[in-house]
Amino acid sequence: MIFSHDTEVTLRSAVDLVNSDRVDGDQLATGEALNRFLDDYGTTGRRDNDAAELAAVHQLRQRLGRVWTVADDEARAVGQVNALLSDTRAAPWLTRHPEMPEWHLHLASIHDPVAQRLGAEIAMALADLIRAGELRRLKVCNAPDCDAVLFDMSRNRSRMFCDTGNCGNRQHVAAYRERRATADEQ
């Protein structure tokens, strides 16, 4: 399944947002860090650059993390996505920018707070994922020492590890060493 460009970018931003406090401490602890995150994803519109804005984004981050936690239960995931769409008062409209000439959706006014805009756009991307029957693409890293989330874009939905801590490589090396140790014992 191929998703629209804005859906993929938005879901990747959601992964990065959720993971911003799951690996190596809080990566969005300051307003500067939040601005870098927003700039990295081309987020336009109002920025208050205050403690309330940062706290609201942190609350959104926790809320999105819960969506990944219940991704194996479609009804619960739908309930959370619908609640987020409602709470952010998502109202879709088509737009494009010079830096992104393809038509894409915005789901909140550029004058709305950043957490509301992010929440609405991420909720709509999650709704697209659910409508496509692809909710199982939302996963938590399979490494025993990692709780980072991922959006599996592999063709056969077989990705098991996140990109944040070299988890896949570490797990493969550990399995190889275990196989070698077992073979040496025999």
UniProtKB/TrEMBL annotation:
<dbReference type="Pfam" id="PF11706">
    <property type="entry name" value="zf-CGNR"/>
</dbReference>
<protein>
    <submittedName>
        <fullName>CGNR zinc finger domain-containing protein</fullName>
    </submittedName>
</protein>
<dbReference type="InterPro" id="IPR023286">
    <property type="entry name" value="ABATE_dom_sf"/>
</dbReference>
<dbReference type="Pfam" id="PF07336">
    <property type="entry name" value="ABATE"/>
</dbReference>
<dbReference type="InterPro" id="IPR021005">
    <property type="entry name" value="Znf_CGNR"/>
</dbReference>
<dbReference type="InterPro" id="IPR010852">
    <property type="entry name" value="ABATE"/>
</dbReference>
<feature type="domain" description="Zinc finger CGNR">
    <location>
        <begin position="137"/>
        <end position="180"/>
    </location>
</feature>
